[in-house]
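seq as requested:
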Amino acid sequence: MNKNFIWRFIAGLVGALAISYVSAETFKVGYIRVMDDAQAIVAYEGGYYKEQGLDVELIEFKSGTDLIKAIVGGQLDTGVLGFTNAVAWSSRGANLKVVSGAQQGYHAILARTDKDISSVSDLKGHTLASQKEGSTADTVLRGVVLEEAGLTPDDVSIMGVSPQVAVQSLVGGRVDAAFLFEPQASIAKLIAPVKQIYEIGEVWPFPCMVTITSADVLKNKKDQVWKSLDAQKVAIDLLENSPNEAAKLIASYFISEPTLVSRDGRSIPREKVISDAIQTQVFNAALNQADLDRMQEIADIMQRQGSLKTRDDSRFMVSSIIDLQWQQERGL
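struct tokens:
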């Protein structure tokens, strides 16, 4: 056989492989570095996205607002974040879809032990660290937690900061209390002089985090979106059934050092801290009718608060942004 033909054949084959590699489409998933988004991190670190044939780029965002902007702008395919972001942006005309559940809302109020705070009503006149105004946590804090305690947001000095800053503010005494999710709540209990006085997940359960995509991505990349949800479902099963194994995959995302030194001098392996935090949570890929009803209730709260406005001042219907074809197809 002619040697030139062989070399041309090999060169053509290598070129074809190179083109195939370059043209392989990356599926971009956004997340926030909190326990609520653990299923995306587990799916990535555990190789579950790869098992579905997806080349996933996992991209961290500092806030749900920044993440939803990236979805709206076409820089992301999906994201795990608070559903209130989808509600707010959809009311302004963005064509977004909630395609699965992720995690139930577990947010604790921790108060410094040197302050006379034993209940939510005792927060009056005190400083409370929470998330940025308009976030899911901020919405339920103002519209549910404080309201049910007979307080208004003006009764409490609310600081909108990151969870990490909230923990350090508790340690340094810059705030009297904080409204925290995991694993920051567990970390704060170990390193700050605090006690837990409230947990919204125990008294007012609601779906906090969901998977969101754009209608365009769902239309044009439905197969990839569903494969990503399949991968996250496997991750959720690991979180729910094998928290110790899940913790090994994600602990370094939340605690940089191998051990966490508590206030009483104990060195606790970071995997132990994260495993314990995982076990306080409820992860679920499916959304049931009670979840949908609660989401509508929160959207109504947003409208009362003025953070959600429709063009004709009509009631925003959460059903308009829900697409549960994946979970129905999977029999969830």
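Confidence is low (pLDDT under 50) at residues 1-23.
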